[in-house]
Design a protein that fits this description.
single chain; Glucose Oxidase, domain 1; 2 domains; 8-stranded mixed β-sheet; 15 helices
Amino acid sequence: MQRFINHINSYVVSVIASLAVMTISLTIINGALAQGSAGGLESIDYAMIARIRDEGLNRSQVMEHVSWLSDVYGPRLTGSPQIKQAGEWAKKKFREWGLANIHEEEFAFGKGWSLTRFHATMIEPQVSPLIAYPKSWSPGTSGTISADAVYAPIRTEADFDKFRGKLRGKIVLLQSIRQVRMLEGRLVLKMDEADLKEAETTPIPSDRRRESSAAAGGRDGELAEFQRARSFQPKLQAFLLAEGVAAVFDRGSDSDMSAGGSDMSWMTQRTDGGTIFVGSGGPRNENAGRVPPSVVVAVEHYNRMIRILEKNIPVRVELNIQAQFHEESTPNGFNLIAEIPGTDLADQVVILGAHFDSHHSGTGATDNATGSAAMMEALRILRATGAKPRRTIRIGLWGGEEQGLLGSREYVRSHYANPATMELRPDHGKVTACFNIDNGTGRIRGIWMQGNLAVRGIFEQWIAPLRDLGVTTLGPRSVGSTDHVAFDAVGLPAFQFIQERLEYNSRSHHSNMDVVDRVQREDMVQMATVVAVFAYNAAMRDDLLPRKALPAPQRGRQNP
């Protein structure tokens, strides 16, 4: 009887074991089926990922890269001596790391510009140093000048006659007082569960035709007013130049609220408090310098001058702007390229991209020394681990992004396709993926799939070993406003990482506060490590990443 019982027990155990194997097999099969048309399970080298994590997390050099780019060479305005010096430093690092094919690819940009001296002080009725910054491509003053400030709210051509003959030698304040609001709500943007859930959705586009017929006064009314103001600017600049004004002061945007830029519903206040968001002050072409000197002043200091003037008390300012224009004897724009050569699939490439240039205020730390440093560090990590990628991993540090994605667009036109005609070059079929960073210093929480839903199953497996680092989210929607757009526009698989925005929208983006002190070390270490894992996985898989259908030609729209 005991032998019979033992036989039955053995049989039951074998059946249970068989069922367990079948369950595991079904789980694997279902997992593979869940990957969709991208097909099956990824062959992931977890041992190499462990080495990448160890090097990236424990021996990071990313903050050194940020400091050299930002503290030493920043700001890096395209066409300036500073960006060229930064490029030479980056090439030196690439050589130290043993990268290959290190070179610059130039593109026409126009005249460069750099600031050599500046100060602005209100000297009457009281002495008060002004927090201010000249706009890029602003001409200088004739040395240090002292001039009366006048408030001249010129809104239309009809206002020209009111001020004609009254502005010569004056510092003109064109804008009215802007209210400085108390800070409230979300200023430092960290993604909570609701944000992560939103990132995993695709908003339904609004009916633009219906919106365009809506009554003015809403967003369309604001847009129409903006367009009118923009078309009026050349006439206003010509009038002020003809009148011989000494300089123009303004206090930046009329809006203290700005969209998140991450294609999410985040809205954030600009923090003011001495933070100024400086823009461009003139053309880069043959008309460079043919505008009045232009300065953006901190709103609190600007408002004070207006309030004094409204009391009929004179305001006098001492001002010195020394600026230099750099002729384009050779193209002033460049993209910086370097590679880790591949092995058996070396003719195929994985591109890591970030824009190398910055605005001229601050030192270009979070926009975009952080992105450039993270991509550089990802290649350093891969070299330090002895990785032998099957595909070539290429870094592209783009110039001219702040003027309209100029560098990345030119690179795509030269190497892959012309978006105006969609005529493809031979290398178009050799790009596995382009991964881009350009949203500040916050850690990576996932990746925007850019509407390429076939990559979901692949990316789900890639982020699984990174979940402990906070990488959890695959956003289906397409996002814009940075260099991956140039690649996506010609049908290449191009992706922007989802990042925590932190203070990017409220304080550092395009401002005088874009400095290394706003960069978060732990997030930067995570960022570079995650990029290195993505680059390695893309370089090692058997097939190219799936692609969307080729876009239609964009005749007349290839330039921003």
